[in-house]
Amino acid sequence: xxxxxxxxxxxxxxxxxxxxxxxxxxxxxxxxxxxxxxxxxxxxxxxxxxxxxxxxxxxxxxxxxxxxxxxxxxxxxxxxxxxxxxxxxxxxxxxxxxxxxxxxxxxxxxxxxxxxxxxxxxxxxxxxxxxxxxxxxxxxxxxxxxxxxxxxxxxxxxxxxxxxxxxxxxxxxxxxxxxxxxxxxxxxxxxxxxxxxxxxxxxxxxxxxxxxxxxxxxxxxxxxxxxxxxxxxxxx
Length: 236
Description:
Number of helices: 10
CATH superfamily: Alpha/Beta hydrolase fold, catalytic domain
Protein name: Alpha/beta fold hydrolase
Number of domains: 1
Structural class: alpha/beta
Pfam family, one: Abhydrolase_6
Order of helices and strands: EHEHEHEHEEHHEHEHEHH
Low-confidence stretches: none
Keywords: Hydrolase
Shape: globular
Largest sheet: 6 strands, parallel
Radius of gyration: 16 Å
Domain AB hydrolase-1: 4-227
GO molecular function: methyl indole-3-acetate esterase activity; methyl jasmonate esterase activity
Mean pLDDT: 98
CATH topology: Rossmann fold
Strand content: 15-25%
CATH architecture: 3-Layer(aba) Sandwich
CATH class: Alpha Beta
């Protein structure tokens, strides 16, 4: 059985994996979900949060060989972590996540997509160093296919997302190239266009690309289905 390290996306925290963790454990896996700096129970001020700090947090949590899953924005820190030290990373799994392109920040990649469904919901902080999602738009963007109560639970936990981690590129080399990778597309995603998820993985081997018929939060919409797919990937 595998050990999974789960990395959340923008404005989220370890809390978003609440329903997936027991499903993976029921399949015999060990699981750890962490709060990146400035998220969840981590009290780092968003003004001091950096992509480097995100990657450091991922590496600090890798006390044993693990399959590292990054959701959405989490694709950037897991990529940087793998480039810095791949020794404990058995596989990277991008869950409807950004796969860094050379020279491009996440924000620049977002603008490469054929449309930008998240942008209308972004509300910048006064200092422009962070943003939150408009509460009135959160359900439609993140959770429209999730069970009742999901949006309310999320609104109690969503945090300010620092802008610095999404404003810098990640350069990769031999370390990153040495790590096996899989991608899980979400076919009804209303945050990262499904078409762009296809673009990001168009040159990947077909055996490493999977699709779930849900939106941007499969950990709430179909935690059992996501866990079984992660289990399948772990057996490769």
